[in-house]
UniProtKB/TrEMBL annotation:
Entry's Gene Ontology molecular function annotations: AMP kinase activity; ATP binding
Coiled coil: none
Record organism: Spheniscus mendiculus
Record's protein name: Adenylate kinase 4, mitochondrial
Domain of life of the source: Eukaryota
Annotated keywords: Kinase, Nucleotide-binding, Transferase
CDD domains, A to Z: ADK
Family of the protein in this entry: Belongs to the adenylate kinase family.
All copies of domain Adenylate kinase active site lid, residue ranges: 38-73
Amino acid sequence: GFPRTLGQAEALDRICELDLVISLNIPFETLKDRLSARWVHPASGRVYNMDFNPPHVQGVDDLTGEPLVQREDDKPEAVAARLRKYKDAAKPVIELYKSRGILHSFSGTETNKIWPYVYTLLSSKIPPILSDEEN
């Protein structure tokens, strides 16, 4: 997410005024498992997830048949370190937006269960766009 640090939040404040911030609270283990299951095709940037979007043949890109690689920062021990660092850096950002009354938090482990709540919030804040036929 962005902003990830208080410095980034302060820089963002200089260019726009936020009226809504969404925080997704996903359990540490869920994030670690998902990120650790990510593999990429370096030449194209195609991303696969071994749990929910695996390649047709394990370890090779669907289109080229070339080997997939796991980025160093996607290995389980690196993911755990990244998540700890993110949590520490993001805490003051979350507190800032909470103090402004613009933070909306959602918790869960599955996108399809969290998204309806996020969508309802966004729909209540953003007016619908009418087509020319509806005007």
